Amino acid sequence: MADAKVGSEFLPNEWENDDYMMSLQRLDQAAHSLKLDESQLAPLRQPKRALCVTVPTRMDDGTVRVLNGYRVHYDLSLGPGKGGIRYHSQVSLGEVAAMAMLMTWKCALMSLPFGGAHGGVRVDPRLLSRAELERVTRRYTSEILQLIGPSEDIPGPDLNTNEQTMAWIMDTYSVNHGFTIPSVVTGKPKSIGGSLGLLKSVGYGVAYCAKRAAKEFELSSDSPKVVIQGMGQVGSVVASSLYDAGFTVVAVSDAHGGIYNPKGLNVPDLEKHLHNYGEASGYKEAEAVSNQDLLLIKTDILAPCAVANQITLANARKIDCRIVVEGANAPTTPEADAILAERGIIVMPDIIANASGVTVGYFEWVQGLIRLLWSEDEIYHRLDQLLDRAMDRIFAEAKKGPYSLRVAAMRLALNRIVEARALRGLYP
Question: Cα dihedral angle (83, 87, 92, 93), rounded to 10 degrees?
């Protein structure tokens, strides 16, 4: 590790928290399998640049609150930065740096002309009024103006940010440049340049990967059973897509808890219940189950689509499924990964399973640059092609080792980054 020495003490880099160290474990595992030397690996052990900013914001009561904000570029060897912006009370430099690293592998794996970036503000948006949230967003944007731009770094929505957030960022950036610049962000409302299909793209991609995995690994059932943790924007699309494809969705959960019916849930009816009551709990055609127990239900496919670190050392030996499809970012810890591999459980990793969001974000960026609008059918056709190409390469790479799908995907992504860095050389 690159440590700063002060007297006889070694101080860790500011971004080296648990999130970042877990990402480094993934990197080291892939690097070891590729037999990379330290001169190739050392520049990738830390971000290219990290900007920490203060975000002073006037509250509705006239007081000024100072928040912390971040924007990190992990690697830009393949193109401008691409990555989300999240608002959360626990956002840290390490978390943002880990997400920027993850985005680097996603873009490389999907052959997108982007590097990896990410950002965030440490704030609980639920405690802010709409006007306060707008002021936070515009001030944060003004503080990171020197890093973002259509050719430099293109933010998109992430945890607790959405189309409206992106619209405020685009407007703030555009006002500072004197004219409208749609491609500074992705995930905008359609009326100001957003792409068709983007809102459902991540869930669509997770379901697509689940269907490919079921076929590749020859699940015996004609209607494989599926458990989905998280019925938000991603999980709800996964549930409806797999239900329509003939899969049996036996359990789902949200922040309030889960529901389970071993014979299968009627997803369209469940969606009506969710619309009426705002949560899965209380659905009459299922029994209640906790989020923790939901992960342990016997099933063919388990899709964790909520938050990170859900499959851990504590429960990995109790997971009872054939395939895990990671709809969330980093839902499986490295220690749990090793246990699942030992038990023969296949993991479709996040860097492919939920890469559809950044891929359709790329489509939006291109449409904005060339002032062209593709139809939703064209968007999904292009997405299917890129997903199939990436998964074909992952499955082929996995057979070479043999490697787990995660190691195979990481090998492909890391090899592309290392090759790009070698070809570009080291300046000066």
Answer: 30
